[in-house]
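**Entry details**
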Amino acid sequence: MGKFKLSALMLALVAANSAIAATEEERTSAKEIDPELEVIEVRGFSRSLIQSLNQKRFSDTVSEQLSADDLGALPDVSMADALTRLPGISAVRTGGQAAEINIRGLSGGFVFSTLNGREQVSTSGSRSIEFDQYPSELISSAAVYKSPKASLIEGGVAGTVELQTASPLDNDQQHKFTANVRGMYNDRASEVFDATEYGDRISFSYQGKFLDDTLGVALGYARLFQPSVATQFIGLAYNGNKDVDGLANDTDGPADNPANEYISEGFELQHLGGEETRNGYLTSIEWVPTDNFKLKGDAFLSRFDSESFARGFRVKFGGPSAVYANPVLDGNAVIGGAINRTSNSFTRVEIVNDDNQDFDEVDSYGINADWQVTERLNVNADVSLSRAKSNFRNGLLWALVAEDATVENPVFDTNVSLNYQLNGLNLPDVGFNQADAFSDIDRVMVSKYGIYPYENEDEVKAFRLDFKYELENNWFSSIEFGARYSDREYSNNRSVFEYGNDGAFSSTQPPLRLTDDMTTVVDWQGEFSYFPSYLAIDLDKALNAWFPDGTPQPVQTWGNADGVVDLDGDGEPDAQGYTTNYSWTMLQSGSVYEEVVSAYLMLNIDTEIGSLPVTGNIGIRRVDTDQSATVLENVGGDPQLGAQYIVDDNGIVNDLYAPSVLGIKYTDYLPSLNLNFKVSDATQIRFAAAKVMARAPINRLAGDASASVNNDGEINGSSTNNPFLKPFYADQYDISYEQYFEDTDGALVVAAFYKNIDSFIDTVAIENFDFKGNGFNVPEYIVDPVSGEQIETTNGVYTTAVNNAKGGYIRGIELAYTQVFSFLPSPFEGLGINASYSYTESEVQSITDLGGDSVSQDLPGLSNNVFNGTLFYSYENFETRLNVRYRDDFVSEQVAVNEQVVNFDAETVVDFQTSYQFTDSFGMLLQVNNLTDEPTQSYFGTTSKTGTTQFFGRQFYLGFTYNH
């Protein structure tokens, strides 16, 4: 058998095992068949990296690989951390941990993810998978496909991440048991009052083969319990304008009011603490009753619970009615000065004690049957269910300063003045005239309590049937074709409980007098030590005192626009309340339905051009999508237009809306080509071209549309989301050069890519919109209330999210170098390096006005320069690794009062890991994550307009491993 045919054999082995590398025995057999073929050997500490290179080498697409040994040798906290070690991949840190990954300058919404080849849904409320919910201990391998092929499920413009769990019958041991036990410590937890300092990680796994190796069983459990700690300053958006310098001229300020400067809403200073608990479970059963049939069932479950608090200050500047003195300007934005409250402003300092609870569930189930019908024909059938649930409760306890909290009828202290000076990426200078009162229970009173539950559930059922038929010709080795059906439903539910007033003291819902047993004076430490002390309030004790009858939540007395309230919860309006409109809780609740039927045809290439072996594939995928969403249309309470009484979880009734379902159907054709030119045994060149798609975030398809008719009969409407949103499309091209070292272990890879994305989501006003034709329940005429005459309705403007924001190119280069210096003399032969660098640029820009003037900003997730370097060393039983991850500044979301898309500063994250193996079975491990305590820092447009400055601390892990 020639070298070329052996390469084809290796490709087939990789495809049959879902891009998992060939086993050690297979590689040895390959060398025996053709001793001249260079197959990279794997050994010692470098085994994982070299095995990953073998997987990449024999893959039929442009891809990156992580092997089982790589994940198991020195396990990362989650798959998010593990994936960021690959070229062109970076992570967005949430709470100090990597969660969402970016691929080639595109954010998580453009990344499609599968587990064992099955589509995964997310608890995020979008399509972006939260990889921190996948324990690395339970994942046996991972691949990132940067170029698609027709047989891959559609959905990744940035790329597709494929996670694989264990295949017990592929294990080279009859029975294998692994255990990891580690303790964890965060060195900043001591700076946060009532924060947890210590945590633990525990994992167990078992793989066994029975009945003459025809039955395989894999079981796994991984637990993570860790403190969630951060100390942060967050600047808020510039959402107002005011003439603060007294200079009125045509060039100073926004065009609609050239005398004004932009002013911020304020800022937050907070301690964050809490606990995160993740429990992961894995079961896999394989049965091979005959040589040509295999049945496998998998179940993966993850439970991620987070209970956290945020305490400190929320400073509200008070809008344009406040008095600004000695303003400091950055261009036309105020970044410092003295601010005083007036009778018309809302300037205040809120002492916040937030209590957040988030309970997430991820379930993935599947059954796969693989049947080698004949020597040439293979049939594979798969049935799967992926389900995610999130139950998030944001509980807020506000406190304000009173003139005297000891009197019978306390009065809110309106004598509020403050001064501040932003210092760019450093912490600001701040001063408060009420600073001494913030920690005085004779001045501070709880003024408001609110709970804002948000629940979402996402579920996809899928059925897949694939055929592969081996061919005998000089061009194609096989033909593959198949079909897939999936049915997805996403639902979300919002509600609100509120009592009191966060801007003053309510006379009907009076503030709570605090006592010593409810409070603790908290001092700031470290970099934040110069900020004034404040009162941390025990939430349970405060609520028990406020509601002594044991009411678990405050009685809801706020109503809809008509003031209607359902106090007894029977679904009927029975009281009048305040006239605050909480219909947003209903508009932001609903369901999205997505039914997809896809089919593909793919030819696997195995030929020669001259004497040059060429492998790869060419194919096309057809995708039919039927998507829809529930919608509440504002019909003004007219029952003839379908208005119904709608009641939320708190008994709030709204009768303005008519429910309906709106949606769209569309068909896509996605061609793809992958070519691998084998220049020599050690050198190959890849080329790939494809049309790709990524559907809009699932929550952006939710129906929050409304339409109304004015007195002239004109119909106008709007929606933040849009059930008619079509996917993002891109044409992409990849080329790479791969050189695998023949005389030592390692490789050099140079790659370039180009993506041309058609469009992005934008909010536009559509003139003369056909409301009735698009499913809106609107009248054909209205009656003039004065004349009684009928007025025929006409189409007006519909403002909504659409896919017409200007697209453009994303292009870049990637360099990857892996070298194990096995040629060095002892004891240095275990030294090695694994490094990658990527440069990405794009012409795609978006417009933001969060920093004042409307300015352009880069595509979310894009860093021009990303570097990842790992220096590793092994000697006898000792192993160690130092990893450095750097990314340029980028655009992403910061979470404050609302989610705000801002600029993030460049960051360098350093992790250190080392281990010692006492025996073949027993070893010790030490890890330090975020070794340099790198903060997260963001800004609005320019670094002088501070966004987030957040410190997470270092995480230390010490523990033991056992393998048998």
